[in-house]
Amino acid sequence: MKHFSLRFFLASFILSFTFLAVIAQELPSAKPEELGFSSDRLARLDEKFNAYVTENKLAGSVILVARKGKVGYYKAFGFRDKESNAKMELGSIFRIASQSKAIVSAGIMILQEEGKLLIQDPVSRFIPEFKETTVAVRKEGGGYDVVKAKREITLRDLLTHTAGVGYGGGAAAEEWKKADIQGWYFAHRNEPIAETIKRMAALPMEAQPGEQFVYGYATDILGVVIERASGMLLDQFLKTRIFDPLGMNDTQFYLPKEKVSRLTKVYTPQEGQPLKPAPEKGTMDAQGEYVNGPRKSFSGGAGLLSTAKDYYLFLQMIANGGELNGKRILAPSTVRLMTVNHLDKLVNFGRGLGFGLGFEVVQDIGQRGTPGSLGEFRWGGAYGSTYWVDPAEQMVVVYFTQVRPSSIVPDQLQLRALIYQAITE
């Protein structure tokens, strides 16, 4: 009887502790009207995103909208896995692809604050193979010449995607293909990311440093810089400096066995056809080797998995000027530097938009042509996810879905329109 009482006490204690831990992890929330939203107008999000599921245009999604530091809308729609009838849940885990970039960019800024680097440093300070790089220049009539880069690539070039490093395309695409370095997917690689990046340095880039916005492997290179500057593998650096302090318990490069059942399946939508699961194996357009892969390559540019809650915690920290729940990750001055435009007139980019250190930044609302505010910053991922922070409205939005190669509905535009029309004060 005594043994039973002891076991009962221990079980009760564990359950109580678990319950308290869950409560402690709950996000601060408020009724929509308390945050300046109309509940009736927010319900239009329910109607639209439920319709995408019933019309077989999207398998499912999770939407989180916060304002003034509190969550006013947080819902899951549809299915995590249609074939097994598994419902999408708030805790479903998504491949966030390029949404990894903002987190790794924050990692670089942490190291600048610690005196381990300066963003003006040449990449070669940490990866010597980048001391002298080359550029492929197209010739009239076909072909290309390989010329020396006019200057070294800097960390700031990488943060702003002006290093000239693409995703293995451009004039020298065949050379990148022969080197087996194309596309943003790394989870299948049976080598550390640093080895891939060292080989990358010898290939011709797409543009001269500082002259064009070229989206590509820049943040993967920054991931290796973090490893060299910190003396830690990228996964451990991010865990100790960002994820653990913020309580981002479900953000990682590869899934532990106990979380595999929460991973959201990728779907390939095609107009006029039923929604189909993406292939099991392959590279970018497949389900990915985040469970049974080699688990050796930590892609800072596109390799992380996360939940809407976790990513919100990161964004709210940025929105707060670098601090959340008493844990300071970055200085306010660093956040300001990250979220202003760093591109000059020589650099090509979208209308009304600029780019900071890891984030697209809105420069002109009229030129962009969609609802939002001056100074808003954002980005998204290759599986259809997106996020934005609107400082003027004190608002943070996270939207996760899993489609590849692209959606057949304007879900991101609809999301933006329906959220802003719900703001009443």
Number of helices in the DSSP assignment: 12
Question: What kind of oligomer do you see?
Answer: single chain
Mean pLDDT: 93
Proportion in helices: 25-40%
Shape field? globular
Count the beta strands. 16
* Biggest beta-sheet profile: 8 strands, antiparallel
Backbone structural class: alpha+beta
The stretches of 5 or more residues where confidence is low (pLDDT under 50) are 1-24
- What is the end-to-end distance? 62 Å
Explain what the structure shows.
The protein is an alpha+beta fold. Helix content is 31%, strand content 16%. It is built from twelve helices and 16 strands. It has helices at residues 2-25, 39-54, 100-113, 155-159, 173-178, 193-200, 218-230, 234-246, 308-319, 332-338, 365-368, 411-420; strands at 60-67, 70-81, 86-87, 94-95, 134-138, 144-148, 267-268, 276-277, 305-306, 323-324, 327-328, 353-355, 360-362, 377-380, 386-390, 395-401. A hairpin with a 2-residue loop joins β10 and β11. α3 (100-113) packs across α8. The longest helix has 24 residues, at 2-25.
Q: Can you give me a brief rundown of this structure?
A:
The chain is an alpha+beta fold.
Describe the SSE topology:
Layout: H1 2-25, H2 39-54, E1 60-67, E2 70-81, E3 86-87, E4 94-95, H3 100-113, E5 134-138, E6 144-148, H4 155-159, H5 173-178, H6 193-200, H7 218-230, H8 234-246, E7 267-268, E8 276-277, E9 305-306, H9 308-319, E10 323-324, E11 327-328, H10 332-338, E12 353-355, E13 360-362, H11 365-368, E14 377-380, E15 386-390, E16 395-401, H12 411-420
Antiparallel strand pairs: 1-2, 1-16, 2-3, 4-9, 5-6, 7-8, 10-11, 12-13, 13-14, 14-15, 15-16
Helix pairs in contact: 2-12, 3-7, 3-8
